[in-house]
Amino acid sequence: MTSGEADVTAAEEKPARLISGPGMLLVWFYGVMVVGAVSRSAFQISTEFDRAPLAYTLSAVAGVVYGFITYTLIRGGETARRAAQVCCAAELVGVLIVGTWTLVDSSAFPDATVWSDYGMGYIFIPVLLPLSAMYWLRKAPAHRGA
Description:
There is one protein chain. The chain is mainly α. Helix content is 71%, strand content 0%. The longest helix is centred in the N-terminal third of the chain and has 27 residues, at 22-48.
């Protein structure tokens, strides 16, 4: 194998980066949401779970979803891109379902979740973030160097 072939092989093994440009901002926002959702739900589950188990569990689920999306964005590559797209779509569906549910039947949620009222408690970031991420993942060049 020549040195040129080795360089090509090494370049092929390195996953396409998803965190350049606006992708880095998405990672930052998702990272903040991971910390917010996980810490909030961990505290609420450990101290007052019986008060609003559905709300606190949904906040924990949101934190896990945010964590997985953050990981896939940092990981890069086409498999990670597809996984992130699926997770962002699932996240958006979750935000829309929980957001609508909290408006229609607020008694089901004695305390807010991360996705309550479409993320109003988080300045609507929970509804805007998956839309932005899906747009970025769709429009960003599929193959770019690291």
